[in-house]
Amino acid sequence: MIHHRSILLALALILLFCSPLLAVSPGDRLVPFTARDMEGNDVDLAAIIGKKPVMLVFWASWCPNCFREVPKVNALFKRFGGQGMAFLGINVGYNDSEDKARMFMKNSKMEYPVIFDGKHVITGQYAVRGVPTIVLADRQGKVVRVDFTVPEISDALYSELSR
Q1: What is the mean pLDDT of residues 46-61?
Q2: pTM reported for the whole predicted model
Q3: Long-range pairs for 152-161: beta carbons < 8 A, 24 or more residues apart
Q4: Interval 126-143: pLDDT, tens
Q5: Which has more pLDDT, 157 or 14?
Q6: Are the C-beta atoms of 16 and 10 separated by less than 8 Å?
Q7: 3-class DSSP state for residue 57?
Q8: Is 5 part of a structural domain of the chain?
């Protein structure tokens, strides 16, 4: 009897944690959070929502695809960061450390601000299932895209995101 309960509990947990319904999706709103970035600056996403488009990049130092996506994010950061778009890297903290994250940031030449989510609070709020996960939202905080690759952002799309 206990064995059956354990199996049912395990299945319920698998369904709960693997359910795509829990992950942030296009049409959802960004989940506000406050944190300190790895340079010691306070970040308040609620203060950004309503003012500028946002790209959240969830990553880990052990992720080769994350490393390959950094130059693409850097290029978008250079192009649109000065125009007002907010870019924020979030190290998911799983099987990682701040030292490893800093080494990754240095080796990949990451140019945008990063939060180390060592307690998995932000990662949990966004129900991140894998890395990299890129969340793109418009100025009002409406999620327009969630993917494992960095989107191409044209001037026309940036204009739409900025409305």
Answers
A1: 98
A2: 0.86
A3: 153/76, 153/79, 153/80, 158/53, 158/80, 158/83, 158/85, 161/53, 161/85, 161/136, 161/137
A4: 999 999 999 999 999 999
A5: 157
A6: no
A7: strand
A8: no
Residues 6+ away with beta carbon under 8 Å from 11: none
Total domains in the chain come to: 1
Per the DSSP assignment, residues forming a β-bridge with 91 are 59, 116
Give residues with Cβ within 8 angstroms of 61, minimum separation 6. Answer: 91, 96, 100, 101, 103, 104
Residue 2, in any domain of the structure: no
Residue 150's Cβ-side half-sphere holds a number of Cα atoms within 13 Å equal to: 22
- On the question of pLDDT at 93 being above 80, the answer is yes
Residue labelled with tokens 């890395």: 131
CATH code (residue 144): 3.40.30.10
Q: What confidence category does residue 5 fall into, taking pLDDT thresholds of 50, 70 and 90?
A: low
18 contacts: CB under 8 Å, gap ≥ 6: 129
Residue 39: phi, psi to the nearest 5?
Answer: -100, 0
* Residue-range definition of the domain harbouring residue 79: 24-162
